[in-house]
Amino acid sequence: xxxxxxxxxxxxxxxxxxxxxxxxxxxxxxxxxxxxxxxxxxxxxxxxxxxxxxxxxxxxxxxxxxxxxxxxxxxxxxxxxxxxxxxxxxxxxxxxxxxxxxxxxxxxxxxxxxxxxxxxxxxxxxxxxxxxxxxxxxxxxxxxxxxxxxxxxxxxxxxxxxxxxxxxxxxxxxxxxxxxxxxxxxxxxxxxxxxxxxxxxxxxxxxxxxxxxxxxxxxxxxxxxxxxxxxxxxxxxxxxxxxxxxxxxxxxxxxxxxxxxxx
Amino acid sequence: xxxxxxxxxxxxxxxxxxxxxxxxxxxxxxxxxxxxxxxxxxxxxxxxxxxxxxxxxxxxxxxxxxxxxxxxxxxxxxxxxxxxxxxxxxxxxxxxxxxxxxxxxx
Lengths: 263, 106
Fold this sequence. Notes:
The structure holds 2 protein chains of 2 kinds.
Chain A: H1 6-11, H2 42-73, H3 77-87, H4 90-99, H5 106-117, H6 119-126, H7 128-131, H8 136-144, H9 148-159, H10 167-190, H11 204-216, H12 220-239, H13 244-259
Helix pairs in contact in A: 2-3, 2-4, 2-9, 2-10, 3-10, 4-5, 8-10, 9-10, 12-13
Chain B: H1 11-35, H2 42-49, H3 51-65, H4 69-85, H5 88-105
Helix pairs in contact in B: 4-5
């Protein structure tokens, strides 16, 4: 998780979510993050929004793709827009519209959403050392607009010690605006454009995940869990129905990491 | 529901979207909520920390395995642009341009 921040990754080679080397884990007063002051205000929202805007425009490219795919799967512009505005989870939404057939496989859709978004629990937990000091309204409200991109930016921001508690909210607002706006554009255009493969739109999902993988790569420690995930997913896609290979690959990698933790 | 036009809202579809929203909100706030109540061992933390990358790879592996040389080449372009520039928009444009080009060549 810390690998998105190069300088921290060097100090924390085992990839812990929290820096807990300063004292006993059960004594939060002893952790370094407790000493800096944390604010939650307009300035932090503004900083988050502006820092995230270029990234959010990139997310917009992905939103156009989602809108097109959703339209081709049979969703109306209004339905695609509603999904983007309330779910706000790009990868899950794109995978789900691939499952979208008549009659709707409701259980598969909801479970796949859960499986793909389970990572948000870990990401939210990683914000704990800072968010524990915000009011419940501030922390839980901010978490609603958390996506991969603004989470990564926020971790970097908070680790730098800026103390901007509203950074996640501001950056999330930037993501939300671009994501919803791009969905409307994509869904409207999707009714017009014929074959998405002709424009390489079908490759957008893979391209986004390749780019995410490059960002998440943390050198040698990442190699074993990723290989485990890769082999498990490719084996599971052959033998297990549906999209369970995604969750199985992730869980296999996490299990192997827990087992080899001491080495 | 397609024939009803761009603004149609099918009740079943809206219900599914709401269910997706509830599940997603639970994942977004659940980890932080749980962390405030239970103690997570460092060993478990190490395992959990590899999950996001591992899930990305688990989605990507079969996706690329199902593709051909055009997709593999374009994925290489994304890696190269991302690694050099760290600009996701540039990497996406490069990858999509490359896949269109490679498919035309192939």
